[in-house]
Amino acid sequence: MPVSAIASGYSGRLTVNTGALKRNWQALDKVSRGALTGAVLKADAYGTGLPAAAKAFYEAGARFFFVATPDEGIAARAALPQDTHIFVLNGLYPGAAPLYVGERLMPCLASMPMLEEWLEACLEKNQALPAALHFDTGINRLGFRLNEAPAVKRLVDGVGYQPQMIMSHLACADIPGHEKNRTQLALFTAVMAQFPGVPASLANSAGLMTARENHFQMVRPGIALYGGRAVAGRRNPMSPVVTLEAPVLMIKEVKTGESVGYGALQTMVRDTRLAIVAMGYADGFSRALSGANNHRGTYVAFGGVPCPVIGRVSMDMIGVDVTDLPRLPGPGEMIEILGAHIGIDDHADVAKTIGYEILTSLKGRYTRHYVDLNPPAAG
Predict the structure, then answer these.
(1) pLDDT single digits (tens) 121-179
(2) Is there a catalytic annotation at residue 262?
(3) Which CATH number is 32-226 given?
(4) Residue 352 is among the residues annotated as catalytic for this protein
């Protein structure tokens, strides 16, 4: 029985399976046994909705969470019980120490000014407020330079401050054989030696899944929790989390030799039936997924059958070739944009990007639903 778009307010429908979120966290927690398993919630929990995702991970067993900004930290704090620990990966924003203290947020301190401001807050409170020290081992984004480690050590020792954790971030963990992984691990181990007894964290999803020596005391999975592919060239073992569907607006008959969409990028080589679907780049469906005469577009699905996107993706709609389907969809019936048959990484491969970008772009004009279903066994 086809599902009408009327049931979801005439719009697309995004369904997030919180049961899959829980299952993915628990699967990674088994891999990282011996280390604490956190959960990264940045970018609105990779587009799935921070409050619901945070609660799902907490129910699964997570107690340590990572966000990018203090605003995300405030949202996480509001969604989570008081026995949770929230790190802010972007560090300490200037002048924001009172906010972090009030919301019980832990900055990942990445520079001398950040560290000095945080230690001043500790002195004002007469309390060793928890924070992490973030060292740059080669990604050249946030983090203390390695040659700053002795000065950092002198400063924290001078006031008797014990950091909650030291951390770094792998640049190439998704490519297991990359030489930079070994280099960064060696550099991080050298930094750790200067802070004996302080817990350490290095591994993101890929680092967790590829090398046990990356685990240390805390792992920080992100994309794998949300069902995305973390390691290039390997089968993805994680359960899909997101289903995105969009309604058919009409079926269009297009003759051989006619073009479809803006720019006339794709000309039909046969008489074609197109489903015009209410999904476009305003809904996070990138123009890079367009079809053209010289390259194929991405696929969507109807009834489990993949159907190619034809012509340029526009702001509000796409054309989908449904000529070969055993039954044509009618207006109001839903086309699968993401789900059991089309994954975020399938679209990412066509768009020459990564699943992270596909997932975090899902901010379109559709209703959101949360379900707690037991997904099929991963793998």
Answers:
(1) 999 999 999 999 999 999 999 999 999 999 999 999 999 999 999 999 999 999 998 99
(2) yes
(3) 3.20.20.10
(4) no
